[in-house]
Amino acid sequence: MKPARSQRPLEYPYTWDQFAHGEWACSHIQTRLDEWLPRCFGYHMLKLGGLSCELTSGHCNIQHQVCIDKLNPLRNVEADGYQLPFVDKAFDVCILANQLDYSSDPHRLLREIDRVMIDDGYLVLSGVNPSSLMGIGRLIPWRKNKLPWNGRMFSPLRVRDWLGLLNYEIIEMSCFGLIPATQHRTCGVWFENACSGLLPAMGSLYFIVARKRTYPLKPIKPEWKLRKRLSPVSVNYRTGSGDI
């Protein structure tokens, strides 16, 4: 298994137009995001990365939404994802679309997101499944330097383990999009329905919804039981000549 941290420079995507089949991937992720965002409540939402900024979330109950990136024109804050300029526990929901695949230190990125998340906050993230037909395409030589195949492509099970170490409960984890079908979408939908049994393992994209759980540590006071004091048995007797 390749280490999570890498010294190799990665091309950081800031728009779905840079992706091969980017419109197809964005529409699939948007569909699942539309199902989950109405269930989230709070005051502040963080959309980290240019790909997250281009996902619409206007129907969400959270009105104040912060978009962070360095190049995407939809951003309203320009900052480094490893050093977010916010206080601890500032956001109720964080959206992280296909960013772990292009992070040189995904553990650090997740820890920084965890720092600004409130207790019981929601983290919604997506990525490319390396065991899918789309992920295997990175083995083709002329695709190695193109998006999304130049990314690192961590498996959803590995991402789930990372979130578990940060004490996140996985609410949903699913894979979808067996074959990228940009032009013939009707045929693509029919093929996915026919091969629906393969989607959990070979879907091109994964979608994870996790919730931060914090359990307070309360010391349990020992129950001291006092032993009964020993007392001699009393003897009732009389002395004197008048005793019978």
Brief characterization of the structure:
This protein has about 240 residues and is of the alpha/beta class. It has helices at about 20-35, 50-55, 105-115, 135, 155-165, 185-195, 200; strands at about 45-50, 65-70, 90-95, 115-130, 170-175, 205-210.
Give the arrangement of secondary structure elements.
Elements: H1 22-36, E1 44-48, H2 50-53, E2 64-68, E3 91-97, H3 106-116, E4 117-128, H4 133-136, H5 156-165, E5 168-176, H6 185-194, H7 199-202, E6 205-212
Parallel strand pairs: 1-2, 1-3, 3-4
Antiparallel strand pairs: 4-6, 5-6
Please provide a written account of the structure.
By secondary structure, the protein is an alpha/beta fold. Helices cover 24% and strands 19% of the residues. It has 7 helices and 6 strands; from the N terminus they run H-E-H-E-E-H-E-H-H-E-H-H-E. A 6-stranded mixed β-sheet has the order 2-1-3-4-6-5, sandwiched between helices. Helix 3 links the parallel strand 3 and strand 4. It is globular and about 95 Å long. It starts with 21 loop residues before the first helix and ends in a 32-residue tail after the last strand. The model has no long low-confidence stretch (mean pLDDT 84).
